[in-house]
Design goal:
It is built from three helices and 15 strands. By secondary structure, the chain is mainly beta. A hairpin with a 6-residue loop joins strand 7 and strand 8. Keywords: Signal.
């Protein structure tokens, strides 16, 4: 459910027009804070919410209740209000339940291009299995963390086109993938510690004063220490958004393909994956007559199919809560 941040961005920030004169209406500090409650369901064998004991690698579905407080603060300055410092939690956290801090600098040029440079350190680590393939006994958890760096050029020269380029590193504290089934040399090929390089090209257009759409293509190269886990991923996303009086709607459809470089030594097969995701979001603004208070509701479904059944899964997600702007 990594695609949901697109639609959420439209809901929390309103809709974006192609031309921008300023980054904010006035100089100083502004931001928002969201308090959400959520439920998620997955049958992924890699999820640490499922049973630690996985007889013969069989799948089991699990449900999880989540709660999160998310927020963003910006400080806008400059004679033309074209400079901005920002810090907060990434909107992608709403879907994943993880807290990743995002901080950086944003600058609006005279040509209409918004330049942004961001650093995303891990605040709370993600849990994974030390050896996901140990279905003989109960699996043990370990922490996964990392940092990401993102360069964005939005509405280049006042056009509908935007480009994102990024780099991330991933480190697993106790990486023991394959140790229960493989000898030492083969086990190294399953190592998940990695560097990721990605780029995205987006196009956003307003259809009317109150509605529009965004489409994007994204490429990711995930370079792991174990060559059996290295892959290339290509995905496409489309989002439609609409404002009607005090109501805001957004819907996203995403699909992608992943191709792994080498044969997986545990399953003795080269892996390739296909996935699609759908996401819907709704926001009701000026709740109880307060223009800074709104109600949010988000729902998504993700289907991931792999040539190796062990990696196939389905996920559902639903949340609701409140957003306060200031």
């Amino acid at each position: 459910m990594k695609y949901t941040h697109i639609a959420v961005s439209f809901l929390l920030l309103g809709y974006s027009s192609i031309g921008h004169a300023q980054l904010a209406p006035e100089e100083g500090i502004s931001g928002n804070f969201s308090l959400l409650a959520a439920v998620s369901s997955t049958d992924s064998t890699l999820s640490t919410t499922v049973d630690a004991h996985l007889p013969n690698g069989e799948q089991a579905r699990s449900e999880e209740l989540l709660g999160a407080g998310l927020g963003n603060i910006t400080y806008t300055f400059g004679d033309e209000l074209n400079k901005q410092l920002f810090i907060g939690t990434s909107r992608e956290d709403i879907a994943t339940g993880l807290i990743a801090l995002e901080m950086g600098y944003r600058h609006l040029t005279h040509s209409g291009t918004t330049f942004s440079l961001a650093f995303l350190p891990t605040v709370l680590t993600d849990e994974v299995w030390q050896d996901p393939y140990n279905w003989d006994t109960s699996r043990e958890k370990t922490d996964r963390n990392g940092n990401a760096y993102l360069l964005s050029l939005s509405h280049i020269n006042g056009s509908p086109f935007s480009i994102d380029i990024g780099f991330a590193n991933i480190k697993i504290d106790e990486e023991k993938s394959g140790q229960t089934h493989l000898d030492r040399p083969e086990q190294k090929s399953m190592n998940r510690n990695a560097h990721s390089y990605f780029g995205k090209l987006s196009y956003q257009e307003m259809l009317t004063v109150t509605s529009g759409y965004s489409v994007s293509l994204r490429y990711l190269h995930h370079d792991t220490e174990g060559n059996a886990m290295t892959y290339n991923h290509l995905s496409a996303e489309g989002t439609w958004f609409k404002l009607h009086n005090r109501h805001k709607f957004a819907a996203t459809l995403a699909t992608g393909l992943s191709k792994f470089d080498k044969t997986n030594p545990i399953f003795e097969e080269q892996r390739s994956d296909a996935q699609y995701s759908v996401f819907g979001a709704y926001e009701f603004v000026s709740l109880f007559g307060n223009e800074n208070l709104s109600f949010l509701s988000l729902a998504s479904y993700s289907n991931h199919r792999s040539t190796i059944d062990f990696y196939s899964f389905e996920e559902y997600f639903f949340s609701s809560g409140f957003n306060i702007s200031f």
